[in-house]
Amino acid sequence: MNRAAVGEAIARAHREEWARVVASLTRRFGDLDVAEDAAAEAFAVAVERWPSDGVPPNPGGWLTTTANRKAIDRIRRESKRDDKQRAAQMLRDGDAPVQGAVDDDRLRLIFTCCHPALAMESRVALTLRMVGGLTVPEIARAFLVQESATGQRITRAKAKVKATGIPYRVPSEEDLPARVSGVLAVLYLVFNEGYLATGPDSDPLRPHLTAEAIRLARLVRTLLPEDGEVAGLLALMLLTEARRPARVSTSGELIPLDTQDRAAWDPALIAEGHRLVRERLATGQAPGRYQILAAINAVHTSARDARDTDWSQVVALYDQLVRLDRSPVVALNRAVAVAELDGPEVALAAVDPLGQALAGYHAFHATRAELLRRLGRTAGSREAYDQAIALAGNTAETAYLSRRRDELG
C-alpha cells in the first residue's frame, strides 16, 4: 500500500475510531486527560508505523490496544508510591460494566461532555475535542477564539468533570429525554456556526463544522435509534446542508431561499432528510421541536420552484411549533411565512410587537425591512436595513442587506 493510501487509512480511522478509542479509555481509566493523551499517542504511533508495517486488519482494535498500553505506561510513570495500589486496582477493575439506559462507551462520553453542569461553550469545545477529535487550533478557528483560551476552556471543563464527579454513564431511563435535549442543543449550535458563521472575520459558510455536526448527529442516531428528536435534528441538518451550494453567490453575497438555484441543491441529502421526516410521521407520535423544524424544511425542499411552496402547510407547522416554543424568534419566523400566505401587512402586524424582545437581533430588522419594502414604505425600510446591517456579523448577510438597501434609491 502506498503512502497516500496509508494516509487516507489513518484519516479514515481517525474519523471512525477516535470517539470509540477515547470512550473506551475513559471508561477504563476514569480520566479524560489520560484518555485524550493516550488516544493521540496511539494515532501518532500509527502515523509512524503503518507506512512500513502496513494498515492492520482491524485498525480500531489496534489503536485501542496501543492507546491502552500508552495509558498504562503514563499511569505507572506518574503514580507516586502511595498511588500505585489505586492505579493497579483501576487497571484490574477498568472493564467493569457501567450501568445506563444504553450500553455504549461513546454515548457515555457524549453525555459526559454535554453535562449541564458545564457552561455551554465548554460543552461545545469538550465535545468537539473528545468526541469529534478536532484539535484545539481547529476548534479555536471555528469559533474565532484564541487557541490559548480554547485550550484553557477544555482543560477547565475536564477538571470540573473530575472535581465534581460528573458520572461517566448514560442517564437513567427517566432522565434520558431531558439530557438528550442538552446533547442536541450542543450539536445544533455547532451546526449553526458552520451554516452561517457569526463572526465578521471568517468565511460565511464553514462546511467542516456542519459536516462534523452531522457526523456526530449520525452517531447519536445510531446509538438512540428510537428517539424522535434525534432523528428530527439529523433530518433538519441534512435538509439545511443540502442547500449550502446555492446559499452564497460568487461575489460572496447571501442568496435567500426564494432565489436560490434549486438545481444546485444536494438531492441525496434531501432524499435522506425526507425519509427521516416520513419515518417520524409514520410513528403517529407527537413531534418535538426539531421534528417540526425538519418538516418545515421538507416542505421547502419539496418545491421545485419557490412559487410552488405550500405556505399554508408551513404556517400550520409553525402553529404547532409555537405551542412548543413560544420564543420571539419562532414567532418572527412564522410571520415570514404568514407574509407569503396573507400578505406583508398582516405579517408586519405580527412582527412589530416583537421589537422589544428582538431589538438586538439583526433578522428582526431585516424582516421588517423586507415587509416595509413590499408595502412601499421606503423610508422605514431603509432605516430597518441600516439597523440590520449594523447588527449582522456575517459578511455574506451584510453584503445582501446592503445591496437590498441601496436598491431603494
From TrEMBL:
<feature type="domain" description="DUF6596">
    <location>
        <begin position="179"/>
        <end position="279"/>
    </location>
</feature>
<dbReference type="InterPro" id="IPR046531">
    <property type="entry name" value="DUF6596"/>
</dbReference>
<dbReference type="InterPro" id="IPR036388">
    <property type="entry name" value="WH-like_DNA-bd_sf"/>
</dbReference>
<keyword id="KW-0731">Sigma factor</keyword>
<dbReference type="GO" id="GO:0003677">
    <property type="term" value="F:DNA binding"/>
</dbReference>
<keyword id="KW-0804">Transcription</keyword>
<dbReference type="GO" id="GO:0006352">
    <property type="term" value="P:DNA-templated transcription initiation"/>
</dbReference>
<dbReference type="InterPro" id="IPR013325">
    <property type="entry name" value="RNA_pol_sigma_r2"/>
</dbReference>
<protein>
    <submittedName>
        <fullName>RNA polymerase sigma factor</fullName>
    </submittedName>
</protein>
<dbReference type="InterPro" id="IPR007627">
    <property type="entry name" value="RNA_pol_sigma70_r2"/>
</dbReference>
<dbReference type="InterPro" id="IPR013324">
    <property type="entry name" value="RNA_pol_sigma_r3/r4-like"/>
</dbReference>
<feature type="domain" description="RNA polymerase sigma-70 region 2">
    <location>
        <begin position="20"/>
        <end position="80"/>
    </location>
</feature>
<dbReference type="Pfam" id="PF20239">
    <property type="entry name" value="DUF6596"/>
</dbReference>
<dbReference type="InterPro" id="IPR013249">
    <property type="entry name" value="RNA_pol_sigma70_r4_t2"/>
</dbReference>
<dbReference type="Pfam" id="PF08281">
    <property type="entry name" value="Sigma70_r4_2"/>
</dbReference>
<keyword id="KW-0805">Transcription regulation</keyword>
<dbReference type="Pfam" id="PF04542">
    <property type="entry name" value="Sigma70_r2"/>
</dbReference>
<dbReference type="InterPro" id="IPR011990">
    <property type="entry name" value="TPR-like_helical_dom_sf"/>
</dbReference>
<comment type="similarity">
    <text>Belongs to the sigma-70 factor family. ECF subfamily.</text>
</comment>
<dbReference type="GO" id="GO:0016987">
    <property type="term" value="F:sigma factor activity"/>
</dbReference>
<feature type="domain" description="RNA polymerase sigma factor 70 region 4 type 2">
    <location>
        <begin position="110"/>
        <end position="160"/>
    </location>
</feature>
